[in-house]
TrEMBL record:
Lineage: superkingdom: Bacteria
Lineage: Bacteria, Bacillati, Actinomycetota, Acidimicrobiia, Acidimicrobiales
Name under which the protein is recorded: Uncharacterized protein
InterPro entries: HotDog_dom_sf
Location of the region described as Disordered in the Swiss-Prot/TrEMBL record: 157-178
Length: 178
């Protein structure tokens, strides 16, 4: 058996490849009860509204079990890093949950680049706004509701020799310039 080659290079999204106003490709995810429960378990959130249908519907008065906050954060991070690639580094992210996401809903992520800049340390930054639209199982695309909104700041390599993951100390300023 031959060893795995380390010469295989992943595609690299460079800072200069991105412009303000660029649209990120959409990502649609069909939510299942397993999606909800595994997200809660992964974040050690044992509160019953994330795994116990009867508790969620009878005690909390909601339609079903629902995604918890860390699970939604992870989906935003996945969406952003899928777009930006393995050489990008998430600097900051804030989001606001507006409605619950239940099993049988479809989550659709879409994003827009809102800013491109370089900080004093020479790190290339991209600001992105993301919308998470939620559509129930019987709803049309026209009736999707805003589930959450997110703003993120992502460091992208300036060239193929730049590595945002190698930046430390004064060379890493994820909250400067927000």
């Amino acid at each position: 058996m031959s060893p795995v080659s380390s010469d295989i290079a992943a595609p690299v999204l460079l800072h200069g490849d991105v412009s303000s106003g660029d649209l990120l490709p959409e990502l649609a995810i069909e939510v299942t009860a397993t999606t909800v429960v595994l997200g809660a378990v992964a974040s050690r959130d044992w509160r019953p509204m994330h795994h116990d249908f009867k508790f969620a519907t009878e005690r909390n008065g909601v339609a079903n079990i629902f995604l918890n906050t860390p699970n939604q954060a992870a989906w935003f991070e996945r969406y952003l890093t899928d777009w930006a690639g393995p050489h990008a580094r998430l600097g900051s992210m804030t989001f606001r949950m507006r409605t619950s996401v239940f099993p049988d809903d479809t989550m659709t992520f879409s994003g827009t680049v809102t800013g491109v800049n370089t900080d004093d340390a020479g790190c290339g930054w991209v600001s992105v706004d993301v919308a998470l639209m939620v559509r129930g199982p019987d709803a049309s695309e026209d009736t999707a509701r805003v589930g959450s909104t997110c703003s993120a700041r992502i460091a992208l390599p300036n060239d193929r020799n730049d590595n945002p993951w190698a930046r430390q100390g004064d060379a890493w300023q994820p909250t400067a310039g927000r």
